[in-house]
Amino acid sequence: MKFEEQETARDAATSQAAKNENENLTAPIITHPQAAEKVESVFIRIPEAMEIMQCSRSTVQRCFAEINKKLRAKGCFVIAGRCNRREFYDAIGLER
After folding, report:
1. pLDDT tens by residue, 29-38
2. At what angle do helices 46-53 and 85-92 cross, to 10 degrees?
């Protein structure tokens, strides 16, 4: 065997060994039968809140702003246009 052929064979063996090692390190993918179901988000968005409250977008935005203001005062992270679902239901008097 020539030097170049030996080098190519060694590179191929090394890459195959690395590939086998990576395959052994990969965790198996486990799927749950209910994984396809929609998971309810922690945050509620304006369109969903509009349906629940049966009111206009601006009313929901005011409600979100007030709830988010209270959460911000507690030191929580808030996102504009979204509201913590639990706090939203508490604010409008619904149980979930």
Report:
1. 656 555 555 6
2. 20
